[in-house]
Amino acid sequence: MESRQQWNLFWSMPKQRCQVYALCGAFSSCNNNNSGACDCLTGFQPTSEKNWNKQDYYEGCVRKTRLQCDNASAGIGNGDQFLQSRYSTFPEQNNMVFSGVGCESACLEFRSCTANGFENNRCSIWIGDLLNLQLLGQDDNTTGKTLSIRLEASEFPNEISPPNKKSVIVAVAIAVSAGLLLLGLIIFTIMKARRRTSISTEPASDSLIIFGYRDLEKATKNFSEKLGKGGFGSVFKGTLPDGSIIAVKKLESINQREKQFRVEIGTIGKINHVNLVRLRGFCSEGSRELLAYDFMPKASLDRHLFLAKDSEPLDWKTRYQIALGAARGLAYLHENCVDSIIHCDIKPENILLDVDNCPKLADFGLAKLVGREFSRVLTTTRGTVGYLAPEWISGVAITPKADVFSFGMMLLELVSGRRNFEHTSDEEGTFFPVWVARQLTKGNDLLKLLDSRLNGNADLEELCRICKIACWCIQDHEIQRPSMVQVVQVLEDILDVSLPPIPRFLQDISNEEDHIFMFTDATISVT
Q1: What is the pLDDT of residues 71-93, one digit of tens each?
Q2: Cα–Cα distance measured from residue 303 to residue 348, given in angstroms and rounded to the nearest whole number
Q3: What CATH fold (topology level) applies to the domain 301-524?
Q4: Which residues contact 89 (CB under 8 A, 6 or more apart)?
Q5: Confidence band of 525 (pLDDT split at 50, 70, 90)
Q6: Which among 39, 215, 345, 363 is annotated as catalytic?
């Protein structure tokens, strides 16, 4: 308005400041009613206090305490927990939505998952930064949405109630009992140590035990019952004084100083997942280096697939659950540990079964166990022929996608009950993994791929799904392969999977009648 030298406001957007996208930055909530527009979420603090005090909220907030990714499999009670808050809307970005319950468990499966919410029987989990959260105002007529934000357990406020006489008496009684119990344990430990009849309990980490060599020698009856032999040494069955059964691995050809050995063992000992074999303890006396694991009564998967033709075969439901469990264990190693661990030798021999056929990855720490020389390991090939990704042979840097390739090859063996290096019985005599990819492309009867001992008893949808993801896992270039987290989501039927191309690398191998590799079950080292 030139005459008045004024502006005449007739329309403006946004109507409220909280409608401005990412006004408060990451991990902050916006409030239209307060003079200060933004507040950090519980457990977070401003990235820059100086800018925050100037009401410049663009940089958002950061965590006060880092998450404990080690506890992803241990449940919500230990380590990371979830704090529920109500907001006008859910965050819009970086979320995955799927049907069913168990939102918190699903979020804990991902190292980068920061929050979850449940609405209309659908679970949403958010990966990365949380943006555009808006607190419910006093005059807000909406019911709001409950968002559970992932925090480290120490960030939760302690709810302290006023003490009363009864609680004081109970507390004193517990303290006295605990003191007497502790005194008794100390006396008992000293007496046992003097008699030298017990296993050493020197702590190596929060849960590991340092065994004496004589202790393990006695437990295994002088290493008399051999369970098997692998690339890192032989495994023997043993029994501890408390009656628990263990599997003792005598390491061979690992030249490390004791300090380095213990540092790596401490790392492995903190890893805990339902689909990983638990390390009970270790022995390191001079050149004697041994590992003690939980004993798996049903041995390794290869015995059920290839070495027990006359016994009752694993049914399809069991095989599918083994595939899913093994995928979860491998995804944990890749994604949920502080340092990503590459297994380097995924094959049926390294998948053990407990009494309920729950799969447990074995030898998952031994690639990291030689970690001080790991760069040299990557310049030579470490693994088993028949499961090696092309990059092992081409000499490029190895990533967790090498494990994905091996896992895909193992999946095909789980389906067929046969070694992948066997040729098919059709007129083409094709290398089996290539034949699977061709069958998928042509839309042929997939029951031809199934272990003949199952007599066609399998869920066709699951069979198609597992064959597709297996063929994606064995693609030539690692960028084409899925991550193990994506493999888990496909097997859980959360993600759809399209038809894969035929791997060129394996197709070339199948066309070489006199090719130089002998596909045997042996650990190799190729420069």
Answers
A1: 444 444 456 888 888 877 778 66
A2: 8
A3: Transferase(Phosphotransferase); domain 1 (1.10.510)
A4: 132, 134, 145
A5: very low
A6: 345
**What single-letter DSSP state applies at residue 43?**
T
Annotate 73-106 with DSSP letters as a single string: GS-TTSSEEEEEEEESS---SSEEEEESS-HHHH
Please determine, for residue 196, whether its predicted confidence score (pLDDT) is greater than 60. no
Q: Is the pLDDT of residue 101 over 60?
A: no
The confidence band for 255, taking pLDDT boundaries of 50, 70 and 90, is low
Amino acid at 288: R
Angle at 96 between CA 90 and CA 101, to 5 degrees: 85
Active site residue 345: yes
Contact between 43 and 151 (Cβ < 8 Å) = yes
Which amino acid, 143? T
Are the C-beta atoms of 24 and 38 separated by less than 8 Å?
Answer: yes
> How many whole angstroms separate alpha carbon 357 and alpha carbon 319?
9
Between CA 255 and CA 291 the distance in angstroms is 15
Task: Report the C-alpha dihedral over residues 301, 306, 310, 316, rounded to 10 degrees.
Answer: 60
Q: What separation in angstroms does the CA of 274 have from each of 204, 206, 327?
A: 22, 18, 12
For the entire predicted model, the pTM comes to 0.58
Q: Does residue 441 surpass a pLDDT of 90?
A: no
CB 130, CB 115: distance < 8 Å: yes
Write the pLDDT tens digit of every residue in 128-182.
Answer: 888 888 877 655 555 667 888 888 877 776 543 444 555 556 666 677 777 777 7
Confidence check: pLDDT of 370 > 70: no
DSSP classification of residue 482: P
The domain over range 209-294 is classified in CATH as 3.30.200.20: yes
Q: What is the mean pLDDT of residues 469-492?
A: 94
Is the preceding omega at residue 91 within 30 degrees of 0, hence cis?
no
Where do the domains of the chain lie? 17-155, 209-294, 301-524
Distance between CA atoms of residues 384 and 302, nearest Å = 14
% helix / strand / coil in the chain, to the nearest 5? 35, 20, 45
The reply, when asked if residue 368 is annotated as ligand binding, is no
Contact 306, 418 (CB under 8 A): yes
* Vertex 327: Cα angle to 323 and 328 (nearest 5): 120
Question: pLDDT tens, 323-345?
Answer: 999 999 999 998 887 777 888 88
Query: Per-residue confidence at 55, pLDDT binned at 50, 70, 90?
Result: confident
What is the Cα–Cα distance from 394 to 399, expressed in whole angstroms?
13
* φ, ψ for residue 383, nearest 5 deg: 155, -160
CA dist 271 and 111 (Å) reads 14
